[in-house]
Amino acid sequence: MACHQPPRAGRRTAVLALLLVAPVAALSPRALVGQTVVTSRGWQEATTGSELETYLRILQLAGKSPLYPWSVRGFSPQEIDRLAPRDTLHPWAARLQAPAADSAWGLRVAVLRPDVRLIYNSAFPWAHTDGVVWAGRGLTASLELGVQARYGPLSLTLDPIIFDAENAAFPLLPNGLSGPRSFGSGITPNTIDLPQRFGSKAYARIDPGQSTLRLDLYGVALGVSTANQIWGPSFSQPLIIGNAGPGFPHVFAGTSAPVDLWIGHLHGLLEVGRLAQSAYSPMPPDSGSGLMASLVATFVPRWTPGLEVGFTRFFRQPWPIGGIRPSDFLIPFEGLFLTPAQVSQKYNPSNPNYTPQDQLASFFARWVFPKNGVELFGEFAREDRNADVRDFLLEPDHESAFALGFVKLLRRSAQSYSVVRAELANGRPTLLQRLRGEPFFYVHNPLLQGHTNRGILLGSPAVAYGGVGETVALDVYRPDGRWTLEGSRQSYQMPGEGAGPRGYNVTYALRAERLFFRRGWDYTVAVTPVFELNRNFARDAFDLRLEVGARVALRGRE
Length: 558
What we know:
Blueprint: H1 11-25, E1 36-38, H2 51-61, E2 72-73, H3 77-83, E3 107-121, E4 138-151, E5 154-158, E6 161-165, E7 203-207, E8 212-217, E9 220-225, E10 230-231, E11 250-255, E12 259-260, E13 264-275, E14 290-301, E15 307-318, H4 340-347, E16 358-369, E17 374-383, H5 389-394, E18 400-412, E19 417-426, E20 452-453, E21 456-457, E22 468-478, E23 481-493, E24 504-518, E25 521-535, E26 539-551
Parallel strand pairs: 1-3
Antiparallel strand pairs: 2-10, 3-4, 3-26, 4-5, 4-6, 5-8, 6-7, 8-9, 9-11, 11-13, 12-13, 13-14, 14-15, 15-16, 16-17, 17-18, 18-19, 19-22, 20-21, 22-23, 23-24, 24-25, 25-26
């Protein structure tokens, strides 16, 4: 077991924080004399998976925000303007200003309020959609702040984040490897880049975070970004791409708003990006970068308001010599079934065009009924492609996962919303494994990083290692903030047969969270006791996660 105690984090965090604050301080409200400056309580903070984006989804359920496809995120600043409510009959109306009317080609600048956060895990790492931040055992500190500038159809968001994790030692599941690789996955260390711990010392990083440069013009969106994305309708368990880990650099092209085809509206995104691996990956460092090419699209039928259906295709292959080529944008349009030439190119190293490749794909649906305050959604995903039609018809569920969920608005008034939500994600291997080998979802040979970026899953942590995850939560929104009580369960099985009574790892977590507003500040306090039965397939363990955070009020001309 690796149990080296690292030095405590602290002084380095302060130094790195100053490096991050300095460039943004230069764009403070006082420095922006003569410009339109919004410094607080603005919808510009509605980044992917953020507090405000989730609140917009609840407003849509309450009929306060227009019906709009929710399965291609993040939203552009223009989309946020269209989704933000104009009336004041909702709980946070006094807190949030209505978006300003478009000022033609005038420059608008918004300084994003700094977000300071402290996370403490008492016994082992436990995450709650932490995004870029990896909170190991001990204390983790993070700071995020930035600025958004808009000029007509052009928008630039610079929203970097810094974090410093104490990364204290805890017992690891032995994986039979030595050196840095001993920190790797304890379940399948040779087929996925999913370390249990990021080394034996404090772990810090400065990341561009939710930063994006984009142009939305004539119905087309073009841009470059490092921001998180969420594809599909899931609240907490998106199967292909979610915000449980860091974003990655990518270029994209798509529709800036759903396109009217008369029979319905089509909205989509095509992108190519670069994925990285951690220092504990099973792949050599010189072969660690990966090319991702993907397509996500959603369709809203004309005759069924509130319904959206869609699909995703996500390809990963080694980073090409010479970088991205225009032809890489065509990868997501490859055929659904493998041709003999593609089989040779993917699996035969002696082929001069050998390019190992992995595909994940999913179909999803979401239906919102604002009059009833009900939302239903689901997603079905597959790993890799079938060889042919017969293969698909025989085994449509091979290497598959699915997610189901619903949201119900129990109470709605100008002063209070009460929302209950539940979600199930299942990546458990099917009975087909009795007849044909079936690796875990997110694992694919010979691309041994798995479906990860920088050592963290791109999709749902619940379905990794053939797992299952359930979440049930109650959210209460009031003018002074939000209360949340969320219970979750995750489980997975030791690989192989005859695992014995300790062969299942089951984790229960109960999260109590309070967000409250005070004079331009947003404070967050969360307490999460985590009970893990058969941790490391050996013993029961308990972790207490404590989290405090604040969005700092800024003063300036609004």
